[in-house]
Structures are given as C-alpha cells and as structure tokens.
From TrEMBL:
Keywords: ATP-binding, Cell membrane, Membrane, Metal-binding, Nucleotide-binding, Transmembrane, Transmembrane helix. Its main location: membrane. This is P-type Zn(2+) transporter. It holds the Pfam family Hydrolase. One of its GO terms (cellular component) is plasma membrane. It catalyses: Zn(2+)(in) + ATP + H2O = Zn(2+)(out) + ADP + phosphate + H(+). It comes from the Bacteria. The chain crosses the membrane at residues 6-25, 37-54, 66-92, 231-250, 256-280, 561-582. It is found in: Cell membrane; Membrane.
Length: 617
C-alpha cells in the first residue's frame, strides 16, 4: 500500500470509529463501549504518526507533526477518547487534503507526461516505418501527419507547416513555419502532413526537457519553505509551554489538552509547498519553466533587471527595418520581386528577405537567368523584368545616388545596418535596410516589469556603443553597458547583485556565465541555446519578451499567497490557543476549528494555480 492510500485508509478508520462510537453511545450500549471504539479507531493513526516521526528523526529531520502525536496521546491518557479520535480525523484528513492539493497542483505535470510523444514515422528509400520515439537518430527524415505530436526537435524540410505550440510556448494561436525553421517536440501539427529532419534525440529534445524540469520543480524546496520548516520547530516547545501554563493556572488538564489540539501547525506545514507547486505549474502553462520553487521565490524578490541586447531586447537577426522606393514605386511589389530573386541566393540576407515577403502574404515567382556576384549581390529576371540587387557599387556602378535615396543614406551612415539596393531594368527602384530590430513586445514587457516592482533596468551587451545606444534610446532603461566581454558581464551582474536581488535575461552562449552569476538567470530558450538554458534558473520557451514579465508577476503572486496563508493560518491558530487556554474551547471543538483553518489555508494556497487579477493587469 502506498503512502497516499495508507493516509486515506487511516482517515476512513478514524471516521468509521467516530461514527460507530456515536452510534453505540446513542443506542445505550454505554460510554465504556463508545470510548473503547474511539480509542481503537485512534490507535492506528497514533501508530502511523509515531513511525513517521521516528523515520524522519532517523534521517535528521524533526517535524511539528509531533504536536498532533502529543495531543492524541494526551487525550487518550486523560480519558478523552472522543477528542482523540476527532484529532485523529483532523490529522489524517489534513494529510489527505494535502495529497489532494498536491495532486491538483501537479495535474499539469501529469498532462505533460501523458502527452509525451511515443512514436515517430521514419521515411527512407524503403518507405515509411513507425518506430518508438527512442529509436529516432539525429539526421532521420520523419513524416508528421495531421494532428500528430512532433516526436523530436528538428528542421522543417517542406516549404511550410502550421503548428499548435500552445503546450510548449503557451501561444494560443497556430504558428506558420517555413522551410529551414527549427521545430520543437511536443508541438502539434495543425495543418497538412509535412517532413522534418531530426536534430536531437528524444531525451535531448525540448519536450523531454520540459517534463524533466517541471518534475524537478515539484520536489525542490525553496528557501521560503525551508525557513517555514525551521520556524515550525519552535512551535512544539511554545505549545507545550502554553498548555503547561494553562494547566498550572486552571488546575484543569483538559485545558492543556485543548491548547494542544488547536496548535497543530498545518498552515505552516502545507500552505507554502502547495502554493509554490501551484505557482510552478501555472508558469509551465504559460511556457515558462522554473527550475524548482527556489527559482520562483528568488524571482519574486528581484528588484533589478539586466538585459542582453541581441536576441533578447532585439530579434537577434538581420530583419527588414525600412523600404525606400523611388517616386511612384510600390514597396510591396518591389519586395515581392526581390524575394523572388533571392530564392536563388545563399546570402545571409536571403532568408530574411523571403521571410519578410511571406509575412506580407506576397506570392513569389520563379527567378530566371540568375547570376550571383560573390560579396556584392545578384542579377536575374523575375516576371520578365531584369532585376539587380546588392551593394551600391554593383547596382549603380558609377552612377550618382538619386536625390530621393540620399536622405536614407545619410540617416543610416553610422548605423550598424545592411543596405540592399534594388534596380529594375537598370534604374534604381528602391533601397532595403536590414538590421537588428527591437522586439515588438519590448516596450510593453518592460513597462509591465516596472509595474511589477522592478526598479532598475540595464542593457548589458557586447555590441559597440553606437548600436547599443540606438536600441536603448527606444526603451525606458536606467543604464547602458556596451562593449562588454563575458567577464565584464559577470562583473556588472555581481556589482548590481550586491545592491539588490538581480535578474539577468539573455539568450546566447556568451550570456551563460552572467545568467549563472545573477540572483535569477532567465534564458530566452526558444532558439535552443543549450548553454544559457543550462545556466539559467528560469527558461522562457516562446520567442517573446512578454513572458519574462509574466514570470515575475506569477512569482510575486505565488509568494504573496503563500505568505498570506501562513500568517492567517498561524494567527487563527494562535487565537484559538489563547481561547483554549482560557477555557473557551473544548478539545473536540478545537479539533474541528483547526480542521476548518487547514481547509481555508490550503484552498487559499491553491489560488496560485489561477491567473489572478495581477496577470490580467
């Protein structure tokens, strides 16, 4: 019989004993028979609790469950078996309620495990073969059918795919992926069948990592919970002192018993673990992985946030910033022609250009007669028009820059951008500017972090100061540190951490030392930067900055609820102890009152599973 089943059995025995004893007493069998039944129903709970306490003591732990053991034993010795069996029901019921609360909080983990990929469809010259997901090797070509889970991480081979990534990233709407995009295990094919190439083994893929980290989070204790455990140890001598004083002053041992009965510190034992498990589970639903409740508690206390620039505050690639077109030109048509031509190019900008065109729902044509000039650009024909795209020297040769294009050239003169000139039938038709663009949600995310209590925000980057200032000028930041080496980043984080609890947010391998040095390291893990994810305490799975603000809000709300439950529970228990010491509460009434307090604090702790008004703000 497992421990959970034993707890339920003890509760059933105690409840049946109470009911049968009351029945015997009411039918006139006499108080002796009823007392015997209540005593017999209490003894299994006493024995199980004594064994549990001895087992904990043997491994160096001493819990406040001893108060419950003392109160039941004292009730039996003082001839109060009814009070003893009610305390037994209270204690056993509290443990069963804890199991229920933990089970409710861990439901997300079970849901994650239950939907783990089990099989994959491997394609080869021999056809398609269904194999266990554990047998997938890196480089295997896999077929993912409509509605199926992606078995491992991989690269999309087909032109496009539609994926439901809600289980991994928390994104509610399907995402469109293009050839060459990175795909993550655990997402669902929400469109037509497609082919992908495995880039990781099953146990090393995204979804397996999610399950492992959430499972670890369920068992890890935060400093807050350990502090509560230590504080609880003072309750036993304090309770014995209060009950002893009550007995000495009144001369009535039943008053001492009543104090013991209402002193069981279930709020302290149960509230913090249940609240923190709920918070970790809630974060997992939003695509935020917290490596244990210690990470969640530390995140709840941060006051300073440090951000890497490239890939964190910015998109981290060469994205289309601006299109300048000749008078009378059409930007979308010119982009369509350029992207059609770039389909034949291997240049680093080709993917960005094609992605920008597809983002505007532009239909691409097949290019013809394409000739690539290494390092300069390419020429070809699209829709019966001759198009040249690349550097100014290639496109214009010795011709002067038109007046309409001079403003942009001057504006971007000292900026870290790439400029692509495009000519149609020998005439300059437009200039495309590419650079590292600010994330679209960066303003909102930083604003929500401010409202969540982050007082100081810093950009910390290895990029040159000109590039860093261009981005920082767009944001509400308190400081900028540029030209930083990995060692400089660690030194900056250590200096800020000495002043206030500090969160470092980054995504690259070079951010790993700084993430490890911070009070809390937050990795933008959507792109699979293994080193930064390993060093971080919190991993954001979606490629957005907004979940960083959500993570701080979830952490603070969780810690607040845990603290509320503990303070309210202990305050109510303390008032009940005073009333019992004054003779206002009998042992039986005290046991019932304490059970009500337990239920109230656990239900309050379970609020961490919901969104709360803070997350909707």
């Amino acid at each position: 019989m497992n421990e959970s089943a034993l707890r339920r059995a003890l509760l059933v025995i105690a409840i049946l004993g109470l009911a049968i004893g009351i029945g015997a007493w009411r039918t006139g069998l006499g108080p002796l028979e009823a007392s015997t039944i209540w005593t017999v129903a209490t003894l299994p709970v006493v024995a199980a609790l004594a064994i549990s306490i001895l087992r904990d003591f043997w491994i160096g732990r001493f819990g406040v469950d001893a108060i419950a053991l003392v109160s039941m034993s004292a009730a039996l010795l003082l001839g109060q078996p009814l009070a003893a069996v009610v305390v037994a029901i209270m204690y056993a019921g509290g443990t069963v309620l804890e199991d229920f609360a933990r089970g409710r909080a861990e439901r997300n983990l079970k849901a994650l495990t239950d939907r783990s990929p089990r099989v994959a469809h491997r394609t080869s010259t021999l056809g398609t073969q269904t194999i266990p997901v554990e047998d997938v090797a890196v480089g295997d070509e896999l077929l993912v059918r409509a509605g199926e889970l992606l078995p491992v991480d991989g690269i999309l081979i087909d032109a496009s795919a539609t994926l439901d990534e809600s289980a991994v990233s928390g994104e509610p709407l399907p995402e469109r992926r293009c050839a060459g995009d990175v795909l993550r295990s655990g997402t669902v094919n929400a469109g037509e069948p497609f082919s992908m190439r495995a880039s990781a083994l099953a146990e090393q893929s995204t979804y397996a990592a999610i399950v492992r980290m959430v499972a670890a989070a369920q068992t890890a204790k935060s400093p807050f919970i350990r502090m509560a455990d230590r504080f609880a140890l003072f309750l036993l001598p304090a309770t014995l002192l209060v009950s002893g004083v009550a007995w000495y002053i009144s001369g009535d041992p039943i008053r001492a018993l009543a104090v013991l009965v209402v002193a069981t510190p279930c709020p302290l034992i149960l509230a913090a673990p249940v609240a923190f498990i709920g918070g970790v589970s809630r974060a997992a639903r939003a695509g935020i992985l917290m490596k244990g409740s210690a990470a969640l508690e530390a995140l709840a206390q941060v006051r300073t946030a440090i951000f890497d620039k490239t890939g964190t505050l910015t998109i981290g690639g060469a994205e289309l910033i601006e299109i300048e077109v000749a008078p009378g030109g059409d930007a979308n048509h010119l982009l369509q022609l350029l992207a059609s031509l770039e389909q034949a190019s291997h240049h680093v900008l080709a993917d960005s250009i094609i992605r920008a065109a597809r983002g505007r729902q532009l239909m691409l044509s097949r290019p013809r007669d394409v000739r690539e000039h290494r390092g300069s650009g390419l020429k070809g024909r699209v829709e019966n028009m001759a198009i040249t795209a690349g550097s100014q020297a290639l496109v214009l040769a010795a011709k002067p820059l038109p007046i309409w294009a001079k403003n942009g050239e001057e504006r971007y003169r000292d900026e870290p951008v790439l400029r692509v000139f495009a000519a149609l039938d020998g005439r300059l038709a437009g200039v495309f500017t590419f650079g590292d663009a600010l994330r679209v949600d960066a303003h909102d995310a930083l604003g929500k972090l401010r409202s969540a209590g982050i007082a100081r925000m810093i950009m910390l980057t290895g990029d040159d100061r000109i590039a860093a200032k261009r981005i920082s000028a767009l944001l509400d930041l308190d400081a900028l540190v540029a030209d930083a080496t990995p060692a400089d980043k660690v030194a900056t984080v250590e200096a800020e951490k000495a002043l206030a609890p500090t969160m470092m947010v980054g995504d690259g391998i070079n951010d790993a030392p700084a993430l490890a040095a911070a009070t809390v390291g937050v990795a933008m893990g959507a792109r699979g930067a293994t080193a930064s994810s390993e060093a971080a305490d919190v991993i954001v799975l979606t490629d957005r900055l907004q979940p960083v603000a959500d993570a701080v809000r979830i952490a603070r709300r969780t810690r607040t609820i845990a603290l509320q439950s503990i303070i309210a529970g202990l305050a109510l228990s303390g008032l009940a102890m005073i009333a019992a010491a004054m003779g206002q509460i009998t042992p039986v009434a005290g046991a019932l009152l304490q059970e009500g307090i337990d239920v109230a604090v656990i239900l309050n702790a379970l609020r961490t599973l919901g969104d709360g008004h803070l997350l909707r703000a």
